[in-house]
């Protein structure tokens, strides 16, 4: 199906599963190459990154740990601009190589907040792996080490990303159709 309805919005298919999977495998290969000896701690940012993290980690073949944190900054179609505290990071990051695994870097406000928190907690080397990036929306000076795909500045759902809680289960990416 190329068009779907979620609540009051129509969405059309924009990135099919095969393209997503190929792009995710490339990120995993780059990580395998870059930090093989670093015993990294991957930090998956819930909820949105759960699907990317699952597929990514199946293709990461180096010794590593994986953990999960949660925070929220987004309501409906627009970023609220405020990010709540990181919840659930029980592991010490002191002196460690960490890789933050995110669904999407939009304005960069969320990632800036995560990065400053990890720096304050004493992480040694902090890398960012994001499934999607909207280059035109970036408002913060942050270094993003791994990007699976870049997309235009439109609202999308699927592959972990939601519209008002729905659509996370879709295996393809859909873009909102503006009326
Ligand atoms: P930022 O702080 O970079 O502006 O926004 C980051 C968060 O906003 C992401 O982790 C994601 O939850 C949400 N977000 C940004 N753009 C989109 C989008 O196009 N679709 C969905 N579903 N969420 C988005
Ligand atoms: Mg996110
Ligand atoms: Mg959301």
Automatic annotation (TrEMBL):
Please give the Pfam families that the UniProt record associates with this protein: Pribosyltran (PF00156)
Q: What is its main location?
A: cytoplasm
Query: Which cell locations does it reside in?
Result: Cytoplasm
Entry EC number(s): 2.4.2.8
Query: What is one GO biological process annotated to this record?
Result: purine ribonucleoside salvage
Q: Write down any Gene Ontology CC term.
A: cytosol
| The entry's keywords | Cytoplasm, Glycosyltransferase, Magnesium, Metal-binding, Nucleotide-binding, Purine salvage, Transferase
Q: Which residues form the Phosphoribosyltransferase domain?
A: 20-163
Please list the GO terms describing molecular function.
guanine phosphoribosyltransferase activity; hypoxanthine phosphoribosyltransferase activity; magnesium ion binding; nucleotide binding
Q: Which InterPro entries match?
A: HGPRT (IPR050408), Hxn_phspho_trans (IPR005904), PRTase-like (IPR029057), PRTase_dom (IPR000836)
Gene3D superfamilies linked: 3.40.50.2020
Q: Which reaction does it catalyse?
A: GMP + diphosphate = guanine + 5-phospho-alpha-D-ribose 1-diphosphate; IMP + diphosphate = hypoxanthine + 5-phospho-alpha-D-ribose 1-diphosphate
Task: Give the record's pathway.
Answer: Purine metabolism; IMP biosynthesis via salvage pathway; IMP from hypoxanthine: step 1/1
This protein's cofactor list reads: Mg(2+)
So which domain of life are we looking at? Answer: Bacteria
Give the enzyme's main class according to its UniProt record, as a single word: transferase
Family affiliation: Belongs to the purine/pyrimidine phosphoribosyltransferase family.
What's the name of the protein? Answer: Hypoxanthine phosphoribosyltransferase
């Amino acid at each position: 199906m190329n068009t779907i309805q979620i609540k009051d919005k129509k969405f059309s298919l924009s990135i099919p599963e095969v393209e997503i999977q190929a792009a995710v495998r490339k990120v995993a290969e780059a990580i395998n190459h870059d930090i093989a000896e670093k015993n990294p701690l991957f930090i998956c940012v819930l909820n949105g990154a759960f699907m990317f993290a699952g597929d990514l980690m199946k293709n990461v073949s180096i010794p590593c740990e994986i953990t999960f944190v949660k925070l929220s900054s987004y309501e409906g179609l627009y970023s609220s601009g405020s990010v709540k505290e990181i919840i659930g990071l029980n592991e010490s990051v002191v002196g460690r190589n960490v890789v933050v695994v995110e669904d999407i870097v939009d304005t960069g406000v969320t990632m800036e907040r995560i990065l400053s928190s990890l720096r304050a907690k004493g992480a040694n080397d902090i890398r960012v792996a994001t499934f999607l990036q909207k280059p035109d929306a970036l408002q913060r000076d942050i270094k993003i080490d791994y990007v699976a795909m870049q997309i235009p500045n439109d609202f999308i759902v699927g592959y972990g990303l939601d519209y008002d809680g729905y659509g996370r289960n879709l295996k393809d990416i859909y873009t909102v159709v503006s009326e």
